[in-house]
Every structure is written in structure tokens, then in C-alpha cells.
Design goal:
Blueprint: E1 8-11, H1 13-25, H2 31-49, E2 56-60, H3 64-78, E3 83-87, H4 96-107, E4 112-114, H5 119-122, E5 136-140, H6 152-163, E6 168-171, E7 193-197, E8 200-201, H7 209-213, E9 215-219, H8 225-230, E10 235-237, H9 240-246, E11 261-265, H10 272-284, E12 289-294, H11 299-305, E13 310-313, H12 317-326, E14 329-332, H13 340-350, E15 372-375, H14 377-385, E16 394-399, H15 403-409, H16 414-419, H17 421-432, E17 433-438, E18 443-446, E19 451-454, H18 466-479, H19 484-502, H20 516-523
Parallel strand pairs: 1-8, 2-3, 2-5, 3-4, 5-6, 6-7, 7-9, 10-19, 11-12, 11-14, 12-13, 14-15, 15-16, 16-17
Antiparallel strand pairs: 1-10, 17-18, 18-19
Helix pairs in contact: 2-3, 3-4, 10-18, 12-13, 14-15, 18-19, 19-20
């Protein structure tokens, strides 16, 4: 089992607030000191991205995020940069450390004026200094505490920041983005860079978060280790190098039988490419033997392309039975379809009627051996339809739905899944057991105990066959002895990192088969 304890934790807004309180009340760090550290870190991040920023405009809200903005403006003003603060919301509502920061900025001569819809654009002036920016806008409007849709005045400010055409730096989180889920709460700032404070927030790395954050940096603000230990995160951000370092090299005497037997089941009429991609991915990622159960029409092209795969035509349940018995891992679903043929193969692979306990699951939930399933694509749709009857939760499978498939499994819609991907993956795992991979930007892996996030990958992966490749990858890793959660975590990271490598030649036109060579290289 991999050790995930050394990975970066991803926190919800409530967890972040609890940690912040602990640092102040137990760690002895005054709130205004934390705010000053945040402002200094934000100013350093601004200069790192834009060394000659030109005029700095800061949109400040009435909470602590606004306080960070006031102190950043004060730093810029002291260093001789032209600064303008735009106050969004009634300043009479400002309290505590944020009020102290505003008063400090006013006392030091920082110009502060009420926000109006055209103020940001009107303040942009031609910059005569060669190579300098025309200016930078700092979003200090809303922090992690936003619980509902942005209010009209906040939306006006967000729209103005997005429309002004200047680089945007967001403090802690882009205003309007949900820190917990990465959902846009009506409108959200689209920043070129985000500096987040103390700990990383979950919403920055999944859903719409990455598109709104730009380059993300973390400023820990010297919060005591005791505070972090007292409030551990319940989600970890995966790092491929950490997982690969924990996977031992093959012994010198290894043979193909030691590296596992994968059976890929699918490829209904017209969908032979899906089964080929899954089988080849399993081979390229180290499975010792890969068999394919598919339609007879696909045998010749499959063997012509990849003769190492042992392909057999199956007409139904009886033909599949001996292949199932010989497999360590079954990848079920690539190109499977939803025909009567598909249903027969699905039911045979999943076990007896009513999708009951598989060979490797006992009614008491304890494993007794047998094949592990990787369930993807149309196998998920057949599962959602209840083919074979109601399926109880199982331990020995990995489900890999995209948001649409997840919605069908939970009898909801895609918008609901994307509104809170963390809740969705937990609900899927509670309903079906095993390990669930909710694919998408910031893919999530949940086994009921751990919640892991992989943010490898890029928009070039929006093309057919990517999920089929992932099924083969996870199946191969399972066959080589990794636990289901470890195979899912490593497989998702490897898949996304290979896509990032392949996209060096361009994201448009990226093909699923382009991932095979870089995956093999990454595995070493």
C-alpha cells in the first residue's frame, strides 16, 4: 500500500477557518500578523509574475480578503508604485483586522475610492516605460467564506476585473469561486495567477477552479506545525514521482506469469478501436499477458495492429467463461455497447445473476481471491440501468466514470455532479463500494477512507479513446500486484502526465494512442 501522508493536503473552507483559528488562539500568532504575512507573500508573487507591474489597482471587499488587499496596496505605495484601491461594498461593515489594515493604508496615504462599474478601465493609463506592464489588478474582493451566489455589486466588480484587459492576481482564491468544490458561484474572477494562503484549497484544483486560478502558488505564512497537525486535510493532491518512487522495480528473475493476466472485455460492432486501445495500454504498462474477448469482426485488425494481445471471438456468456476463469484482472466496458451481447458479457464478468458477489467477494465483505474488475464506459451504463439486478457494494472493483456516467449511476444530472465533485465521488463509493475514479479536470479517487486528487492532464484529452486507455492502464497496474486504490491513483496520474508530455507538440489533435509511448517512458 502506498503512503499518501507526505502529499500536499487540500482543505475545505471550514477546515481552513479552523486551522486559522488554531494558529491564532493556540499558536500565538495575532490575526493582523497573519494578514501582514499574507500581503507580503502576495506582493512577492505579484513581482515574480510581473517584475515591472506598472500601476497597481486593488479591488477590496469588506472581509479579511480585503484586509490582505489593503496591506498589499500599502506595500506597493511605500515602494513608490502608483496604487489605487477600489472599495467594493459598504466600508462601515469592515471589522477587526481588516479595519485595522484599511486604517493603516489610509494613514500612509494610499488612495481609496468607492468602486464604480467603470473605475478600473478609467484608471488604465498609457505606460511610457519600455517593457513595463500597463498595470496589474489585484482581486482582494472575496475569500474562502463565500457560501452562496455573489451579490450584484460583487458581480459588477468581478465583471469589471475580467473585462479591463490587465493581468489579474487573485488573493487566496479567485473571487466567486467555491473553495470547497471549484464551482463558479454566479460569476468568478479569471486570474492569471493565484497566491493562496496557509494551505491549498480543494476548489482550486478541480471543476472550474484551474481555469480561473492560472498559476497557483502557496504561501504557508509560517503557521505552526502543531496547528497543521491538529487539523489534517481529508484530501491529498497526488504527485506522480512520489507514487513511482514507492513502486519497487521488477526482480531480475521476473517472468510474464508474475506480471499478471488481464482480460479486456468489449468491442461491440463498430467499436473495435476502444478494445484495442485498452489492450495495448495494458501491455505497454507492464501486464504480463493480455487477452481480449470481443466480436469476431475485430480479430483480424486487432491482431494486425497488436499481435501480442491474445484475442478471441465470443458470442456470449459460455464463450467468455473460460477466459474469465484464467484472468487476474478484468477490464470491462471499452466499446462494450448496450446490446443483448453486451448484457450477456457484462453479467458474466460481474458474476452470477443480480450482479451478486464476484468470485473475489464474500457476503461478509472479505476478499477470497479471484479477479478484480475495472468497470468503464458502457459497463457503467449497464450498471446504472440495473442490468442483472440490483448490485450491492463490492470491494474488488474500480469504477471509472466521467461526470455523465456518474450522473446516471446516481440518478441525477451532470450539473449536479460537477457542482460538488467531492460529494459525488463519496456518494458513488458509498453506493457501489470498491474504488471510484471520478474523471475530469482534477480527477478524484475515493476508496471510502482516502480521497485523492490528480490534477495532471490538459484540454487536449477531450478526444475519443482516452478513457479506454485509462481502463487498460489501471488493469495492468492491478495485475502487477498494486492494491485497487494504489492502481487507480498511479494510473490516473500516469495517464494525465503522459498526456501532458504528448501535448508538448500541441493539444489540438492529441490522440489517445499518443499517450502509450510517454506512459512507458514514465514507468521506466
Amino acid at each position: 500500500m502506498f503512503d499518501y501522508s507526505n502529499l500536499q493536503g487540500l482543505y475545505s473552507a471550514a477546515q481552513t477557518r479552523a486551522l486559522d483559528r488554531h494558529a491564532i488562539e493556540k499558536g500565538g500568532i495575532a490575526g493582523h500578523i497573519l494578514m501582514a504575512r499574507a500581503a507580503a507573500a502576495a506582493w512577492a508573487a505579484l513581482l515574480q509574475h510581473w517584475p515591472q507591474p506598472g500601476p497597481v489597482q486593488v479591488a477590496c471587499g469588506t472581509g479579511n480578503n480585503g484586509g490582505d488587499g489593503y496591506l498589499l496596496a500599502d506595500i506597493a505605495h511605500k515602494r513608490g508604485y502608483p496604487v489605487q484601491v477600489w472599495q467594493v461594498g459598504d466600508p462601515a461593515r469592515i471589522r477587526g483586522d481588516a479595519l485595522r489594515a484599511r486604517e493603516q493604508a489610509l494613514a500612509n496615504g494610499v488612495p481609496i475610492a468607492p468602486f464604480t462599474p467603470g473605475c478600473l478601465a478609467a484608471n488604465v493609463q498609457p505606460n511610457a516605460q519600455q517593457n513595463a506592464q500597463a498595470g496589474v489588478v489585484v482581486d482582494a474582493l472575496l475569500g474562502t467564506g463565500l457560501g452562496g451566489e455573489v451579490r450584484p455589486v460583487q458581480r459588477e466588480a468581478i465583471d469589471a476585473m475580467n473585462a479591463v484587459g490587465l493581468p489579474l492576481l487573485a488573493l487566496d482564491i479567485p473571487s466567486g469561486l467555491c473553495a470547497d468544490s471549484g464551482r463558479v458561484l454566479g460569476a468568478a474572477v479569471r486570474a492569471q495567477a493565484t497566491v493562496t494562503f496557509i494551505v491549498a484549497k480543494r476548489g482550486l484544483h478541480t471543476g472550474a477552479g484551474p481555469a480561473h486560478c492560472g498559476a497557483i502558488s502557496l504561501a504557508a505564512l509560517d503557521v505552526p506545525a502543531a496547528s497543521l497537525a491538529a487539523h489534517p486535510a481529508d484530501c491529498q493532491r497526488l504527485a506522480l514521482h512520489s507514487l513511482l518512487r514507492q513502486w519497487p522495480a521488477r526482480p531480475a528473475h521476473a517472468h510474464k506469469g508474475d506480471c499478471g493476466r488481464v482480460l479486456v472485455v468489449g468491442g461491440d460492432l463498430g467499436m473495435g478501436g476502444a478494445i484495442l486501445l485498452a489492450a495495448e495500454a495494458a501491455l505497454r504498462c507492464g501486464a504480463g499477458l493480455v487477452s481480449v474477448a470481443t466480436r469476431e469482426q475485430h480479430l483480424a485488425p486487432l491482431l494486425a495492429r497488436r499481435p501480442e494481445a491474445m484475442a478471441r471471438a465470443v458470442r456470449g456468456r459460455q464463450d467468455l467463461a473460460p477466459m474469465l476463469a484464467a484472468a487476474d484482472v478484468i477490464a470491462l466496458g471499452p466499446g462494450l455497447g448496450q446490446s443483448s451481447w453486451s448484457e450477456q458479457l457484462f453479467q458474466a464478468a460481474c458474476g452470477q445473476a443480480a450482479c451478486g458477489q464476484a468470485a473475489g467477494d464474500r457476503a461478509d465483505g472479505n476478499d477470497t481471491g479471484g479477479a478484480t474488475l475495472v468497470v468503464d464506459a458502457d459497463a457503467l451504463n449497464l450498471l446504472a440501468r440495473g442490468v442483472g439486478g440490483v448490485c450491492p457494494p463490492r470491494r474488488r472493483w474500480v469504477l471509472t466514470p466521467h461526470p455523465g456516467e456518474a450522473a446516471r449511476l446516481l440518478a441525477t444530472d451532470t450539473a449536479a455532479i460537477q457542482a460538488d465533485r467531492f460529494a459525488a465521488v463519496r456518494a458513488l463509493q458509498a453506493r457501489f463500494g470498491g474504488v471510484v475514479v471520478l474523471k475530469g479536470k482534477g480527477s478524484l479517487i475515493c476508496d471510502g477512507e482516502r480521497l485523492l486528487l490528480s490534477d495532471y492532464g490538459n484540454p487536449g484529452m477531450a478526444s475519443g479513446g482516452m478513457g479506454d486507455v485509462l481502463s487498460g492502464v489501471i488493469a495492468a497496474l492491478l495485475a502487477q500486484g498494486l492494491a485497487p486504490v494504489d492502481a487507480a491513483a498511479l494510473g490516473v496520474c500516469l495517464h494525465g502526465a503522459a498526456a501532458d508530455s504528448a501535448a508538448a507538440a500541441g493539444q489540438r489533435g492529441l490522440l489517445a494512442s499518443d499517450l502509450l509511448a510517454p506512459m512507458r517512458e514514465l514507468l521506466g
